[in-house]
Amino acid sequence: xxxxxxxxxxxxxxxxxxxxxxxxxxxxxxxxxxxxxxxxxxxxxxxxxxxxxxxxxxxxxxxxxxxxxxxxxxxxxxxxxxxxxxxxxxxxxxxxxxxxxxxxxxxxxxxxxx
Amino acid sequence: xxxxxxxxxxxxxxxxxxxxxxxxxxxxxxxxxxxxxxxxxxxxxxxxxxxxxxxxxxxxxxxxxxxxxxxxxxxxxxxxxxxxxxxxxxxxxxxxxxxxxxxxxxxxxxxxxxxxxxxxxxxxxxxxxxxxxxxxxxxxxxxxxxxxxxxxxxxxxxxxxxxxxxxxxxxxxxxxxxxxxxxxxxxxxxxxxxxxxxxxxxxxxxx
Lengths: 114, 207
Description:
The structure holds two protein chains of two kinds. Chain A has helices spanning 3-8, 45-48, 65-75, 91-99; strands at 17-22, 34-37, 55-58, 79-85, 103-104, 109-111. Chain A is of the alpha+beta class. Chain A has one domain (12-111). The longest helix of chain A is centred in the middle third of the chain and has 11 residues, at 65-75. Chain B is mainly alpha-helical. Chain B has one domain (8-189): Up-down Bundle (YP_001051499.1 fold like), CATH 1.20.1590.10. Helix content of chain B is 74%, strand content 1%. Chain B contains nine helices and one strand; from the N terminus they run ααααααβααα. Chain B starts with 7 loop residues before the first helix and ends in a 10-residue tail after the last helix.
């Protein structure tokens, strides 16, 4: 990526990751909500403003989007159901997904069978 | 007092009503206020060169003192700005995010002056707002940014202060555009005010 692209893509730079939450009720998340997360740099206000009903932004500075979303789900006591990313899931994130019972079903997707 | 929001569409509409020169001045003020963020980054990380960024900022303000933009000088400074962007992936744990936003705002201000495109000025303002959102969010340190947290971030005095400064700047520029006050005078005032506000941009206050 050129440096110019860093400027022009400044608000589209994040990798998005979704985790479908379910199970126990928690104060900060509800069953069926979708967690949206950015990679390395968390979502900026313009990105958060695009979230729709049932979607919440997760935050974990410096972490990949997958880890950010999974951590938020775990901390809220939710088991993940499915995860999708805009960039290919890296080996380190794949290992974390598998350690949580997930299964990669594509370069950008994983499911968590119950 | 109602909580101010960063309303990009409204800002764009208001900037469209200004002359090319005044809207570039608005962008330059947004960039000027963030300058100390880059100084801090370059001093701590030993990367970048804040003297070069200072010269780029100086070049914009000097150019804004003239009725016509000097495209050659500005384009040279735009290249310098791009070379000053922090390398690699931004890391939220250091000052690179603030530094990147500071340089980007200078670049957007230069582009606003060269092209006269209002969106460039909006982007300069957006980067200032994003830096403060980032700073406040890091201090609050939430795992989930739900609507309640979102409202708390927006209402934080540092975020509100920048949104208010942007609004005041716009009001002054609009007043200059509709009265006999010279553009150069209001640009000089804006420059001075933005320099004075710069040290307070990320001024840490208890949450």
